[in-house]
């Protein structure tokens, strides 16, 4: 049987060269915009968290950044917690909520479709994280079209 004769890794060891950057650090030109859409089932995978991190990164690079929650994606914007709202039941439980709040605090805009809130999930606008703007379902397409017209980078997230 072959043997592996290397020392065990220890905390603080590097496994990859994380400092090497291959591409230039792109910053937004004045007036550039970005839209990230979420039509995804909340918490079934990492996409909600990953794309909120992407939204924050785009915002920090100078893009006027908007997030659109529609369909099952509106669940990402609903207040959570256990045993009370805002209480984290376990580490990471409220990771997406915290990212949304931080994104809004940094000037990002988040919109949630009223149709999905009420018709699909029986939620009210008061259930949304403070700062999320509820919109008419007809605004979902118009927001996308306006952002397209303005030459925005659009990242669509679909998992359901």
Query: What composes the largest sheet?
Result: 5 strands, parallel
Cα(first) to Cα(last) distance is: 46 Å
Radius of gyration, in angstroms, nearest whole number: 19 Å
The level of helicity is 25-40%
State the low-pLDDT regions, or none. Answer: none
Order of helices and strands: EHEHEHEHE
Structural class: alpha/beta
Describe it.
- With 160 residues, this protein is α/β, with parallel strands linked by helices.
- The chain contains four helices and five strands; from the N terminus they run βαβαβαβαβ.
- It has helices at 47-60, 95-105, 114-120, 137-149; strands spanning 33-39, 64-69, 109-113, 133-135, 153-158.
- Helix 1 (47-60) links the parallel strand 1 (33-39) and strand 2.
- Helix 1 (47-60) runs parallel beside helix 2.
- The model has no long low-confidence stretch (mean pLDDT 94).
Would you summarize the structure shown here?
This protein has helices spanning 47-60, 95-105, 114-120, 137-149, and strands at residues 33-39, 64-69, 109-113, 133-135, 153-158. It is of the alpha/beta class and 160 residues long.
In terms of topology, how is this protein built?
Blueprint: E1 33-39, H1 47-60, E2 64-69, H2 95-105, E3 109-113, H3 114-120, E4 133-135, H4 137-149, E5 153-158
Helix pairs in contact: 1-2
């Amino acid at each position: 049987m072959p043997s592996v004769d290397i020392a065990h890794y220890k905390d603080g060891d590097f496994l990859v060269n994380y400092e090497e950057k291959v591409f230039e650090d792109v910053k937004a030109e004045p007036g550039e915009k970005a839209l990230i859409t979420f039509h995804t089932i909340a918490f079934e995978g990492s996409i909600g968290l990953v794309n909120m991190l992407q939204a924050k990164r785009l915002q920090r690079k100078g893009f006027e950044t908007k997030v659109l929650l529609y369909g099952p994606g509106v669940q990402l914007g609903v207040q959570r917690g256990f045993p009370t709202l805002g209480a984290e039941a376990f580490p990471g439980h409220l990771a997406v909520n915290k990212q949304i709040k931080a994104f809004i605090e940094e000037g990002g805009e988040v919109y949630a479709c009223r149709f999905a809130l009420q018709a699909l999930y029986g939620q009210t606008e008061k259930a949304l994280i403070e700062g999320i703007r509820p919109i008419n379902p007809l605004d979902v397409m118009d927001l996308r079209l306006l952002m397209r017209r303005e030459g925005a980078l659009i990242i669509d997230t679909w998992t359901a």
